[in-house]
Design a protein that fits this description.
CATH class of the largest domain in chain A: Mainly Alpha
CATH superfamily of the largest domain in chain A: MetI-like
Largest sheet of chain A: none
Oligomer: heterodimer
CATH class of the largest domain in chain B: Alpha Beta
Strand content of chain B: 35-45%
Shape of chain B: elongated
Number of helices of chain B: 9
CATH topology of the largest domain in chain A: MetI-like fold
Radius of gyration of chain A: 24 Å
Largest interface: A-B, 21 and 27 residues
Number of domains of chain B: 2
Number of strands of chain B: 20
Order of helices and strands of chain A: HHHHHHHHHHH
Order of helices and strands of chain B: EEEHEEEHHHEHEHEEHHEEEEEEEEHEE
Chain lengths: 285, 376
Amino acid sequence: MVSRTRQKRAPAGPFDYSRKVSLRLVFFLGAIFLYAPIVVLVIFSFNDSRRGGNVIWKGFTTKYYEKAFNNDALVESFINSLTIALVSTIFAVILGAVTAVVLWRFRFPLKPVYEGMVSLPIVIPEICMGVSLAVFFSSFGLYVPRDVAFPLNLTNIIIAHITFSFPFAAMVIRTRLNSFNREMEEAARDLGASEFQVFRDILLPHMRPGLVAGALLAFTLSLDDFVITFFTSGPNTVTFPIKVYSMVRFSVTPEINAASTILILITLAVTFVAMRFQSFEEPRK
Amino acid sequence: MSETAPPIISVQNVTKRFGSFTALENITLDIRPGEIFALLGPSGCGKSTLLRIIAGLETATEGHIMIDGQDMAGIPANKRPVNMVFQSYAVFPHMSVADNVAYGLKLERLPKPEIAAKVEEALAQVHLSDFAHRKPDQLSGGQRQRVALARALVKRPKVLLLDEPLSALDAKLRDAMRLELVKLQESVGVSFVIVTHDQSEALAMADRIAVLEAGRLRQLDTPAGLYKQPVDRFVADFIGSINMFAVIGQHDGATQAETTLETAELGRVRVSSARLPASGQGGLVLAVRPERVKLADAPPESADAIAVAGHLGDVAFQGNSSIAEILLAGGASLAALVSEKEADRLMQAESGSPVTAWWRADDMLILPENALSSGG
């Protein structure tokens, strides 16, 4: 910079958003709006107070983390949630990928109808999905007996989660497929690849960022789903969001803050790993 | 190249229809071993479709493709002894340069040391040895094309098919790559079939050119043959630049051996009846290349000269020569290729000053509108 005086500074250009005070303010307020609750939640998980609803800082402690880890019901619900998320993500991504490839690759009668039906679970209100799934499971006698061992006791919830998360995975993967250059497939055929080899060696590597993004979406959707889970879970299959809800109704303790902070950390870690994985071999254009 | 050897590819009566649209109509042509063969035509003429039919990426509605004497009907693309360089190059972005080249060999399940040796040789051939471990996104467009070339050539195809190989390169690189492709073809010895819409590319590279238009084969000849003896107005217009005058009247000449043709711009022109096209449809045109047109102050005395008076228009500088525009009566114009020296003189002259353009009758072509006897 040649001069440091204020008057000599060039006026902000059309795209110099960061130099306009008004826009900086909007950005700042937006950030506060989005992140302040989370930051407060994390801070108060270390608050040495009897009740979490109490917003008066009483000193630093980690005893609520200890308490959360020793709360067997909470830990069980946590493990349940992670198991459901993991299993339903695997199925959702496989189903989503197959659906996406079929919709992208083939032409068949009633394709628009099929396409619309696949994305229907995205727009249907969750409450309707929850009720319909609950009615479906009970009317077909598909309830899980009380004494079934983990993780089979989660079957109903897992099926419900696959139902609502696979359309999201399918949409993300479908979008990724749109950028596939069909000449690539023809080039592989020309070099001697069979249909399956084209899929394995050329199409699948191209789909990978979409698969990762779809998996991430399905995982987070499943992890924090409350409504649909509430309708499809039994007394022995409590997931983390439902457990937290019941604890909050009783009393808001910093224990919940601590458990939520751990969940946030896990989500961030999964996202970070997935993004690294996604960009690892993603060609820069 | 041998003219008597059996063709390496024989295209026999190939017709391709997409619904009611006919992309190719009854194409028959042979590609000889070791030649560079160009499929030339404007976009949408069906040249790429023909290439894809040879490669097995499309199936012909009718007709046969023989490669090295074997009928390719029912043989899929991955089993045909030809390989293709795609217009977008279609280099696999998730594989390194070496892996791209090795891919076709891995599918053949060759032993690893053999693959490595062949890949190295192929990369050396296209001057990419130093880039073996790069990813395609770290390469320029020209380098990516070399990867596509090496990847196809390493399979030792009987014929290499190239779809618009130079269209994505910038002008300077394109000229260099033309020469390099010709050299590469000479060193590997297999036939190249090149699809292009650029006539100068085809003229510069090919041993023989098939000119296609609207799915039909208009003319198949050497570059010189196409340039000097185009069969009809379309080919003459497509290959190089040419002045054309529509014939509006045809009269018997003084003798049987002579015919008088009438055009709006040149008036009546006497030509030998033997030079009239034997077949074809539509009217006739008289055509003369700009380099055959000479400029003079007065009409020449020579009996076989055809002269037309006009006014000097713009002179377009082209380096070692220039194109002078001669404005004729009635709004038509005529292009003449003039030497550097003559261009200097013309530039001195005032625009609009009278000038006479003339050429020898033998340098003038008499062409039908369309050489094909039906359809079109």
